[in-house]
TrEMBL record:
Domain Arginine repressor DNA-binding as annotated: residue spans: 1-66
One function term, GO molecular function aspect: DNA-binding transcription factor activity
Subcellular location: Cytoplasm
Function: Regulates arginine biosynthesis genes.
Keywords: Amino-acid biosynthesis, Arginine biosynthesis, Cytoplasm, DNA-binding, Repressor, Transcription, Transcription regulation
Originating organism: Pseudolactococcus paracarnosus
Domain Arginine repressor C-terminal: 77-143
Similarity annotation: Belongs to the ArgR family.
Gene Ontology terms: cellular component: cytoplasm
Name of the featured protein: Arginine repressor
SUPFAM superfamilies associated with the record: C-terminal domain of arginine repressor (SSF55252), Winged helix' DNA-binding domain (SSF46785)
GO biological process: L-arginine biosynthetic process; protein complex oligomerization; regulation of arginine biosynthetic process
Entries under InterPro entries matching the protein: Arg_repress, Arg_repress_C, Arg_repress_C_sf, Arg_repress_DNA-bd, WH-like_DNA-bd_sf, WH_DNA-bd_sf
Amino acid sequence: MKKSERIKLIKDILVDREIMTQDDLVTALLDLKVEVTQATVSRDMRELRLIKAPAKNGGYRYALPESYLPNSDEEWFKSVVLGIKILGNQLAIKTSPGSAMILKKRLLSQFDTMIFTVLSDDDTILLVAYSEDQAEKIYDRLAN
């Protein structure tokens, strides 16, 4: 397998699964019949500039830096948004741990003209839109 194919496969694995250790990544690749060594995977991980991010079930997992994410904003929203509630012109958004600040930035860039303010902590966002209609549009976009 070419290095470029292996790198693409590693990106796909990191998006689809929670890889907690280098050994987990080596095992995932071996399960897919990709012959690799720990040293090769270590070099690939360094080249991809992988980061440690909070895992859904506690602990930390390897993740791609935001600039390397292969999926669209919509797919990314679906992967981190656990629930959304709407009340008037406000949205309460529950995210996976550690994702709220990144989501906040994306919401502000994508819906800037519709948002009055956004407050967030580690896994929760309160978004206040200028109007109920705008809040509903944001809700519909995130919920679908």
